[in-house]
Every structure is written in C-alpha cells, then in structure tokens.
Amino acid sequence: MTMSATFPGWSERASAFYVGLEADNTKDYWTRNRRVYDTEVLAPMQALLDDLSAEFGEGRIFRPNRDIRFSADKSPYKTSIAATFGQGYVEFSARGIGTGAGCHMLAPDQLARLRTAVADEVTGPRLEAVIGELEASGIDVTSHDRLATAPRGYAKDHPRIELLRNKDLVARSHWGHETPWLHSPEAAEHVVAVLRAARPLVLWLDENVGPIAQEQRR
Fold first, then answer.
1. Residue range 83-97, pLDDT digits in tens
2. Is residue 3 assigned to a domain?
3. How many Cα atoms sit within 13 Å of 23 on the Cβ side?
4. For residues 147 and 167, what is the distance between their CA atoms, to the nearest angstrom?
5. Over the range 85-115, which residues count as b (16 or more CB within 10 Å of their CB) and which as e?
6. Is the pLDDT of residue 164 over 60?
7. Consecutive H or E run containing 194
8. What's the predicted TM-score (pTM) here?
9. For position 212, what pLDDT does the model report?
10. Which residues contact 78 (CB under 8 A, 6 or more apart)?
11. N or C end of the chain: smaller count of CB under 10 Å?
C-alpha cells in the first residue's frame, strides 16, 4: 500500500468472538466479551478505515446492534462488523473478510437510470467490458436483488437482459479461513487491490446512475 499502514489485522480471537456470538446471541455474552469486541474487532476496523481514508474517503462503521423492530429474528447483535466509505465497503465475520464497491438499495430514479444505461448501445457495452475485466481478475460482480424476468418496458430477449434484471450492482471478493494471510496486516493490501480494481465500475455508476450515497455503496 502507498498509505501509512497501522492496521494490525483481525486476530483469531476476533473470529472466535463471532463464532461465540453466533452460538449465544445474547446481551449476557456481549457484556462478558465486550472488551474482546472493542480491542480485537472494532479497533482493527477503525485502523483499517484510517489507513484507507486518504485514497478512498472517510469511513463509517455500522453499529453492532440489529434493528429488530420489523424482523422476526429478535437476535440483538449483528454477527459481523461492517463499514462503508467513499468507494466501497469492508466486512469481517466468523466466515472471513469481504470487500467490494458498487451500488446497493437504489432509489427508484437511480434504478431507472441504471436500466436505461444498461440498455443503451454505448454505455451498455462499456459496462459489459468493465464487468469482464473484473471477472477476469477474479472479482465477482453480483446483484443482491434481481427480477425473475425482464423489467417492464424491456424485451425478454434483450442482449443484456441478465444485467437489466439486476436491481443493484456490486463488485466483491471474499476470503475465508483457509486464506493464509487472513489474520495479518496483509489483509489490507488485498482489500485495497479489490477497491482499486472496482474503480471503473464505480465511475460507470457515478456517470450513468448518479451519485450513490455512502450508505448505498456496497
């Protein structure tokens, strides 16, 4: 990395914390292990965001408590720590590290512009080329939500129908426990590599969909 690195990596104790939280998602467990969360989970995330801020923008860490008001699942705590910043997101859990960039939960007008740009004969092929380069480098390009068929107003046999069905678009990578550097500072280098590779997708979205709010970038 070109930045001054302070990120120590997430330790095996951080993974164990989330393994335990998944098994015992209670206030009692959280209270007993709060120091582990603060020192082994939260502090490394803040250090990583500090390291990334000069290149990717200021970050925001999501709170650990779940919003259970409208959920059938009343578990009080999230089983991962996640943060967003200018050009992406990063997440750590018992299953490893995930990172990426793109758009998530688009407003109706943004979704309409996304589909218009995908269908266009200039901007659509440009997006296909961007996605092709990302996938060739081993980075997945996915959607969190897709229509089962063509959106209204678009032909089912459109040459980019698979992209038109997407309600959002994210370039992402995930590394699990088999990854040798998972619990080391080297993890930051891999996060940065994905974020830099995803810049053409972010630029395409900014140009054709409109500015994506920080909390929407995923």
1. 998 779 999 999 999
2. no
3. 7
4. 7
5. bbbbbbbbbbbbbbbbbbbbebeeebbebbb
6. yes
7. helix 187-197
8. 0.89
9. 55
10. 62, 64, 65, 66
11. N
- For the beta sheet containing 60-61, the strands, ordered from the edge strand earlier in sequence to the opposite edge, are 60-61, 80-85, 88-93, 96-103, 169-175, 140-142
d(CA 16, CA 24): 12
N-to-C CA span, the chain: 22
Confirm whether 1 is domain-assigned.
Answer: no
> Which residues are within 8 A (CB) of 39 and not within 5 positions of it... i.e. 6 or more apart?
none
Residue 102 CA to residue 105 CA, distance in Å, equals 11
Which parts of 2-149 fold into alpha helices (H)? Answer: 12-23, 27-32, 34-36, 43-56, 108-119, 123-136
Q: What is the CATH number of the domain that holds 145?
A: 3.30.930.20
Q: Is residue 155 part of a domain?
A: yes
Which amino acid appears at position 27 of this protein?
A: K
CA–CA distances in Å: residue 185 to residues 28, 77, 137, 144, 148 = 31, 26, 22, 29, 41
Is residue 5 scored above 80 in pLDDT? no
